[in-house]
From TrEMBL:
Protein's UniProt name: Beta-xylanase
EC main group: hydrolase
Lineage: Bacteria, Bacillati, Actinomycetota, Actinomycetes, Pseudonocardiales
Domain GH10: 29-328
Biased composition (Low complexity): 332-355
Organism: Amycolatopsis eburnea
Signal sequence, renumbered to the chain: 1-31
EC number from the UniProt entry: 3.2.1.8
C-alpha cells in the first residue's frame, strides 16, 4: 500500500486514531527501506557527492554502499584536479571514486568539465583563443578518459550571473565568446557519445527568478538549434525553509523543453524533514526528474557542516529528514503499490526479450538503446507471486558483445545478481539494472531466480 493510501485509510477510521501515530512512522509492509531502492521503484536514482579521501572511512563507505545508487565526485573531476599542469592529466583520485562506485553497482555523475572556479593556475591567467583551445582539449581528454563510465556529465557549471540580469556571469571562459557553452557541449558529445550532458547551476529553482529564466532561454535555444543538451542540474542548496514554492513548476517547465531534470547537490540548512520531503516530492511529481543527489553523506562531510544540512548525522545515524525523503520516494507516482498483486507481465518492445515467469520466483526482460557499435541494456527483474530477497538473472550476450560497465548489479560471467540495496523486490513488483556494451544484438534472458 502506498503511504498516501495508508494515511487515507487511517483518516477514515476513527477507531485507529490512537495507534495512527505509530503506524504513520512505520514503513508500509514491503516498501523499500533504502534511498537507492526507494528511488529505483519509480525508475530514479538517489546519489551522494563523494570525496576520495573518505573512501578509507568504513562508516562512510558502509552508508554509501547501503543507501546510494549514484555518485558524484565532490572535487576530484574538477579542472584543477584533472589537469593540474597544462596537457598533463591526473585521474588518480577520480578513478578511485569511479572504481568504487562502478564496482559496487552504482552509477556516476561527472562533475564538472568547465567552471569559472577551481581552474588550475595555468588556466586562470588564460584568455581568448588560447583558453578556448585549452578548454576544448580539456573536455576532449577528460570526457574521453571516462567515456562509457559516466551516466551524466555536468558539462558546464554555474555560468549564469546572480541577481536580476538573467545573463551570463563574467569569467575568462565567457570572455572567449558567448558560444563557449555550446562549444563545450558539442565537444563533450564528440568525446563521450553516451553520457547525458547537463547544464548545472544554483539559485535556478525559483521559476520567477531572472537567473532561472536566463538558463531556461539558453536551454530552449540549444534545443531549437540542435546543440546537444540532455539535462539540467538544479543544485538545490536550500535555506532552512526548503525549496521555493514554484520548484515543481520550474522542473516541469524545463522538462517540457525536452531535457531531463535532476537535483544535483541537495542540502538544506538544519535539514527539516518537511523541507526534505517537499523537495523530494517536487522531483518525484515530475516524470522527467530522474534523480536526486545530496551534496555529501553525513553532516560532518558537508561544505556547510555548521548548518547540519544532510540526511545522516556525524555518527552516521539516519536523521528525521531521512525518513521524510524515504516516505516521499515510496509514495512517488509510478511507484508500484506494495500490497501483493497478481504478477504483471513486463511490457515488451521489439527489442525486448522476456523469460517465462516461474511461479514464486522472477521474470526478466531486456530493453535496448542501441547505436552503431554499442548499446545500453536495461534489465527489469519482476518478482513472481512471492517477495524476492535476492535474485540472479542469467543472460546470454550477443556474439562478440563486450560489457564495459554496469550499474545496480554485480556480475559473475553470465550471472547478474542484486547488490545490497535492490535484492528485496515485493511480489509482483520490479527493480531494474543496466549495463553498457560494445557490439550489436540483443541479450537473451536464459533464467531468473
Ligand atoms: O584538499 C585541500 C587541502 O589539501 C588543503 O589543505 C585545503 C586548504 O584550503 O584545501 C583543500 O581543498 C579544498 C577542497 O574543497 C577539499 O576540501 C579547497 O580549498 C576548497 O576550495 C574545496 O571546496 C569545494 C568547493 O566546491 C570549491 O571547489 C567543496 O569541497 C565542494 O563541496 C564545493 O562544491 C561545489 C560544487 O562543486 C558546485 N556547486 C557548489 C558546491 C558548493 O560550493
Amino acid at each position: 500500500m502506498k503511504l498516501s493510501a495508508l494515511r487515507a485509510a487511517l483518516a477514515a477510521t476513527a477507531s485507529v486514531a490512537a495507534v495512527g501515530a505509530t503506524l504513520l512512522t512505520a514503513s508500509p509492509a514491503g516498501a523499500a527501506t533504502t534511498l537507492g531502492a526507494s528511488a529505483a521503484q519509480s525508475g530514479r536514482y538517489f546519489g551522494a557527492a563523494v570525496a576520495a579521501a573518505k573512501l578509507s572511512d568504513s562508516t562512510y563507505v558502509s552508508i554509501l554502499d547501503r543507501e546510494f545508487s549514484m555518485v558524484t565526485p565532490e572535487n576530484e573531476m574538477k579542472m584543477d584536479a584533472t589537469e593540474p599542469s597544462q596537457g598533463q592529466f591526473n585521474y588518480t583520485n577520480a578513478d578511485r571514486i569511479v572504481n568504487h562506485a562502478l564496482g559496487a553497482g552504482m552509477r556516476m555523475r561527472g562533475h564538472t568539465l568547465a567552471w569559472y572556479q577551481q581552474q588550475p593556475g595555468w588556466m586562470q591567467s588564460m584568455e581568448g583563443s588560447a583558453l578556448r583551445q585549452a578548454l576544448i582539449n580539456h573536455i576532449t581528454q577528460v570526457a574521453g578518459h571516462y567515456s562509457g563510465k559516466i551516466y551524466a556529465w555536468d558539462v558546464v557549471n554555474e555560468a549564469f550571473a546572480d541577481g536580476g540580469s538573467g545573463g551570463r556571469r563574467d569569467s575568462n571562459l565567457q570572455r572567449t565568446g558567448n558560444d563557449w557553452i555550446e562549444v563545450a557541449f558539442r565537444t563533450a558529445r564528440a568525446a563521450d557519445p553516451v553520457a547525458k550532458l547537463c547544464y548545472n547551476d544554483y539559485n535556478i529553482e525559483d521559476w520567477s527568478a531572472a537567473k532561472t529564466q536566463g538558463v531556461y532561454r539558453m536551454v530552449q535555444d540549444f534545443k531549437s538549434r540542435g546543440v546537444p543538451i540532455d539535462c539540467v542540474g538544479f543544485q538545490s542548496h536550500f535555506g532552512s525553509g526548503g525549496p521555493p514554492s514554484s520548484f515543481q513548476t520550474t522542473l516541469t517547465n524545463f522538462a517540457a523543453l525536452g531535457v531531463d531534470v535532476q537535483l544535483t547537490e541537495l542540502d538544506i540548512a538544519q535539514a527539516s524533514s518537511s523541507a526534505y520531503a517537499a523537495t523530494t516530492r517536487a522531483c518525484v511529481n515530475v516524470p522527467r526528474c530522474t534523480g536526486i543527489t545530496t551534496w555529501g553523506i553525513r553532516d560532518t562531510d558537508s561544505w556547510r557542516s555548521g548548518e547540519n544540512p544532510l540526511l545522516f548525522d556525524g555518527n552516521g545515524n539516519k536523521k528525521a529528514a531521512y525518513n521524510g525523503v524515504l516516505d516521499a520516494l515510496n509514495a512517488a507516482p509510478g511507484t508500484p503499490t506494495t500490497t501483493p498483486t497478481t504478477p504483471t507481465t513486463p511490457t515488451t518492445t521489439p527489442t525486448t526479450t522476456t523469460s517465462a515467469p516461474p511461479p514464486g520466483t522472477c521474470s526478466a526482460s531486456v530493453s535496448l538503446n542501441a547505436w552503431n557499435g554499442g548499446f545500453v541494456a536495461t534489465v527489469r527483474v519482476t518478482a513472481g507471486s512471492a517477495d524476492l530477497n535476492a535474485w540472479t538473472v542469467t543472460l546470454t550476450l550477443p556474439s562478440g558483445a563486450a560489457v564495459t560497465n554496469s550499474w545496480n548489479v554485480q556480475r559473475s560471467g553470465d550471472r547478474w545478481s542484486n547488490v545490497s540495496y535492490n535484492g528485496h523486490v515485493a511480489a509482483g513488483q520490479y527493480t531494474e539494472f543496466g549495463f553498457q556494451a560494445t557490439g550489436s544484438g540483443t541479450p537473451a534472458v536464459a533464467g531468473c531466480g
